[in-house]
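Follow-up to my post from last week.
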Amino acid sequence: MTAATTDLPRAEAPRAVTLWRRFARNRAALLGLFLFGLVVLMALTAGLVEPVDPLRRAGDPLTRPFTDWAVPLGTDQLGRDILAGLFHGARISLLVGVLATLLSIGIGVLVGALSGFFGGWVDDVLMRVTEAFQTIPNFVLLLSLVAILGSSIEYITLAIAIVSWTAPARMVRAEFMSLRHREFVDAARNLGVSNASLIFREILPNALPPVIVYASVIMALSILLESALAFLGLGDPNFASWGNMIGQGRSVLRTDWYCAAIPGIAILLTVLSFSLLGEGLNDALNPRQKKT
Amino acid sequence: MTGPVLDIRGLRIALPKGADRPFALAGLDLSVNAGEIVCLVGESGSGKSLTAGAIMRLLPEPHVHVAGGAILFEGRDLLALPEREMKAIRGDRIAQIFQEPMTALNPQKTVGWQIDEVLRLHTRMDRKARRARVLEMLDLVHIPDPTSVHGAYPHQISGGQRQRVMIAMSLCLSPRLVIADEPTTALDVTTQLQILKLIRELQQKEDAGILFITHDFGVVAEIADRVVVLSQGEMVEHGPAAEVLNAPQHPYTRALITAIPALIPPKPRNFQGAPVVLRAQGLTKTFAPRGGLLGGKRRTVKAVDNLSFDLHRGETLGVVGESGSGKTTVSRIVTRLLEADTGAVEVNGKDLLACSPRELREMRRHIQMVFQDPMASLNPRKRVQDIIAQGPIVHGTDPATARARARDLLELVELSPAAATRFPHEFSGGQRQRIGIARALAMEPKVIVADEPVSALDVSVQAQVLKLLADLRDRLHLSLLFVTHDLRVAAQLCDRVIVMQKGEIVESGVTADLFADPRHPYTQQLLASIPGRGWTPPDLKTDAA
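User reply:
Got it. Predicted complex:
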């Protein structure tokens, strides 16, 4: 045998390094990463800014921002420190965002994988259920779920997951349907690999990249949904969430707009950071999509 | 007209930074005269298709661009023409025939409309004249019923007919130059021969120059007047066809020609006494398309009809046929990747088709498969050692032992053990196919089913992989069920051959006998259609690479 057939190509850089290089090529994605880091930092240091309780009275009600350095961003109509609320709110928003996303992606992957892998009646049944969820407007379903379950933070997270699993389910199903007929799946089946391993070890890793990208969208949406609930007064009143702050600031919007505007800006930047991150992840994970 | 239609001088095409070489094409000189067929031959990645792109000025610029040289078409340098004039030349004076007629035709428009469009854009003919010309062209390319094909959509006609339509479309303006980029690669052998004949015939009638791009020396022998051989962007040899084919000078050309499987079957070996390891009986499979809620009844297709065969220990049985003959279905039924309607597959004395799912997983170790597409058959997210060790681990081998054995297997298929920790995309096609073979061997099977294992590979790599398979078969006493469309490949490796047509066996027998004296008309037709069958590659064994 000639040497040519046994010659190996030059070793490639480790996968993580190539992924980072592709991600970092997108400037906007780096900005997204920076903003996201900032929010995480806020959530982590919330205890330093306000060690006792963000809902306690910290100064005179409706102090304007930058007038009293004990409460730099001012206070709301009950005299609560807006800066402290912002930091503690970051915790709630991230918590709800991460948990709801994990839950909804989990449900979505399971339903989509079973549906796409087995096809036939399994697919029919699961997809009819998915469609049933999709036909009801998201927010209406969310409101009814919260009305039924009650508005503690756990149930709100669960309800958000329940309204947002359908899109990832459809996505995973489509990926599975195209991947299950690939030869490498047949090859693994031919080795005697069980169905569960085929689904989770062979196909799923290949189907995940678009789902991971979409997770950033769900994360942003869950934060928005939680804020929207709180704005309508259906949020968990025991926590200082950004939505709660906007909801309460609404009543003094005409005289003291900053009570609603400051947490509003926080939500805007957080959601923006997820959207930019998602774009960067897409560049990193699906490099071929953009080239043409 | 004097002088060549096309004259390429010192053409260089630059590749983007970071590619495996700076120039896709480094100094190509080539000329095509009127009424001449020039074959541009090379393996994948040799730069032959980019040449076509450069002539048509359809390179994916600015990444890939012409870095030097001149392309003279009827004396004018195409590279210096403004885009507007180039547009007029494209399609009108220079036409192109593509490899895959299905993707080159618009599925939403009728065949007639698409040919008509060419005339509408480039001529001032009125509607009636155009229709007459379209029908005339369809007749010229020997389409049986031009009027009905005129109104048909591309999916309603066969692959061979689609390629005829493409040829009609490219010739309807009587171009001076036709660039045919692997026009017969996607077709069956019998259709390929017809299309090659057609191209020859039309070219003589129209007196156009043809630049024929191919990787197949059989096709070259069939059609070429002159040959240009490309290797890695370098022109290594050129000259009249007979000279290049029968007395190649450059070592690369010699290596390519030596790699072509000769049509001489191996000496028959006797397997009468050997035990039967795989016995298929009465296999039948019908595909009934699942109708939707509103879909009417559709035709059911009998893919395999009452098929039986025996495979002895150490033997290689070839299953040969054209697309749609059911040969791939056979390979999937035998490995039970596809459920048969009726029949039995006895492996090791046990019916594989009657096994429960648990028994089946256990039985799979005896019968393994090598797949067609080395790109798709390896999980892109797994390291090579995990791919090879997966089977044994599933069947209870300790992972560390299985991985150690995977390295030994890599050596067995002539890959460096350093490959073990790499991912599949880092390898070339031939190397990947070796990994696929190692994966099958890891299970220590009795039977290996190989479904077109070399059809996606270049001819020189093909020869190496075939040699490896034959070598392993003899060393490990394996039995092979070898599915292929390529009779040359079958001739080289198979002890016995089954010829299939429309799901049935039309003829079977010892390879040497069957090739020397085919009985069934279909087998005779198949053998007569092998490209370049009249040409025996010269014996160059002395200094083969």
